[in-house]
Specification:
InterPro entries: DLC_sf, Dynein_light_chain_typ-1/2
Number of strands: 4
Helix content: 25-40%
Largest sheet: 4 strands, antiparallel
GO molecular function: dynein intermediate chain binding
Strand order of the largest sheet: 1-3-4-2
GO cellular component, one term: nucleus
Subcellular location: Cytoplasm, Cytoskeleton; Nucleus
Shape: globular
Oligomer: single chain
Strand content: 25-35%
Radius of gyration: 12 Å
Structural class: alpha+beta
Keywords: Cytoplasm, Cytoskeleton, Dynein, Microtubule, Motor protein, mRNA transport, Nucleus, Protein transport, Transport
């Protein structure tokens, strides 16, 4: 996947820069390939479950609030255009 950090605006991250880049690259691919936000979230979640072991959660949308508990160094919240992406690991 190409590196597309310039398309993302990272609001908060508690993860290694390489993992952040992977999240953004994965989101870029998912937004290009899928029409529905639930499918975008599914692609990102499944990729992170495979690459970084379960259990990851991904929320994608234009308007949502959140309060989550996450595994240390396994959290990112960013915008891709006008759409927010919240990705975090638990357990």
């Amino acid at each position: 996947m190409a590196h597309l950090v310039e398309e993302a605006v990272i609001k908060h991250a508690d993860m290694a820069e390489e993992m952040q880049q992977h999240a953004v690259d994965c989101a870029a691919y998912a937004f290009k390939e899928k029409r529905y936000l639930k499918d975008v979230a599914s692609i990102i979640k499944n990729e992170f479950d495979i690459m970084y072991n379960p259990t990851w959660h991904c929320i994608v949308g234009r308007s949502f609030g959140s309060e989550v508990t996450h595994t240390l160094k396994h959290f990112i919240y960013f915008y891709w255009g006008e759409v927010g992406v919240l990705l975090f690991k638990t357990g």
